[in-house]
Specification:
alpha+beta
């Protein structure tokens, strides 16, 4: 019993035709995505002297992996649709069916191509996009520095220490404020015992070191009793120091800037620190990293089905459905991200829903076609 069908002239012909059409669709998608605003802004910065020509080219090249992550499914859908629509109009599909080729056999070379593109899509999202974002940030010298706040709590979920970092870059921090909560519990006043304001802070691997510190001592009734100067002070130690620094570093990054392995570690850390909203959001994005590439397979099948048409059937119908499906897919992704973030739906469901929806569409189109 043969596990794989023999590769025929038909397979090579269909594979080549869909591949060419897919490449053209991907190229057009990249051009359309870059041309309106991205290219114009880069040209303006190059003409104003903010970018050199070399830097402008690098910035544009670094945008391509991000676009490719979206273009692969679109290209396969339109490539399969255009190819099979043309075959239908030229009555070639009628000939294929007349010589005994079933729909599944006709679909085989398209599926092979779709799995290849799925692998490319997965690699692009996991490796190329984070690498391109890192290069783009480096050449632009772009280091986002936003305020970060960490609160350390005891076993009773009461605050022990709050650390506020105004700016940070790599392992260096500026304007760090530490709120030290006393272990005593008062019924009528706050629990703050000391406030430290440090000019500089540094992550040392196993602890955080603060320098040039003003210490504000606070009495039980909330009055500053003394302001002292401290040269150096260590805060946060061991795994806590490492975990907080990791959380702070990733707080300025978007999901696409993180590889799969790092994203998995980050998600585990978010769960450990009980940062529920960020945990659900990132877990949803992690699942999407695996499910999104397989959208390529489903859209390739959908494009093939939409391409099966009668010789005089209007071509615009299939292309309208295809473009509408892509539009709905990408426009609803942020909505499902929000549902996952707020805990309304489990991240696995929000990430899996587009695949379920496309599968239902494929079944519906298959039943409506005379195959």
């Amino acid at each position: 019993m043969k596990l794989m069908p023999k590769i025929t002239i038909y397979d090579r012909y269909i594979f080549k035709q869909v591949l060419i059409a897919t490449c053209v669709a991907i190229l057009l998608f990249i051009v359309v995505w870059i041309a309106p605003e991205m290219l114009l802004n880069t040209i303006k910065k190059a003409l104003s002297g903010e970018y050199t020509m070399k830097l402008a080219v690098i910035v544009l090249l670094c945008e391509i992996p991000l676009i490719l992550g979206k273009a692969f499914p679109v290209g396969l859908l339109l490539g399969a649709l255009f190819t099979f629509d043309k075959l239908s109009k030229d009555s070639e599909l009628t000939i294929f069916r007349a010589v005994g080729l079933s729909f599944r056999r006709i679909l085989a070379p398209v599926l092979v191509l779709s799995f290849i593109v799925t692998g490319l899509c997965f690699y692009t999202c996991d490796k190329l996009i984070p690498k391109a974002e890192a290069v783009k940030a480096y050449v632009k010298d772009k280091h986002p520095s936003t305020q970060y706040i960490y609160t350390q709590k005891d076993s009773n979920n009461a605050p022990k220490l709050a650390v506020i970092v105004s700016e940070f870059k790599d392992g260096l921090m500026n304007d760090v404020i530490v709120l030290d909560f006393s272990q005593k519990i008062y019924t009528d006043v706050h629990q703050l015992s000391n406030i430290y304001s440090a000019t500089l802070g540094e992550y040392k691997g196993d602890h955080w070191k603060l320098s040039d510190i003003k210490q504000y001592n606070i009495s039980n009734d909330g009055i500053f009793t003394a302001i002292e100067h401290v040269d150096n002070m260590d805060i946060l130690s061991g795994d806590t120091a490492k975990n907080v620094f990791t959380l702070m570093s990733y707080s300025t990054k978007r999901e696409r800037e993180i590889t799969n392995s790092d994203l998995k570690s980050y998600i585990s850390l978010l769960k450990k620190e009980e940062l529920d909203e960020e945990y659900h959001y990132m877990l949803n994005k992690y699942f999407q990293r695996f499910f999104h590439p397989f959208v390529c397979v489903l859209l390739a099948i959908m494009g093939t089905l939409l391409g099966f048409s009668k010789p005089r059937e209007q071509r615009v119908i299939g292309f309208t459905i295809a473009i509408g499906s892509i539009f709905v897919y990408y426009i609803t992704l942020p909505f499902f991200d929000l549902l996952a973030e707020k805990g309304i739906l489990p991240p696995l469901i929000t990430a899996l829903f587009p695949l379920i929806a496309f599968s239902i569409c494929i079944v519906a189109f298959y039943k409506t076609k005379d195959l």
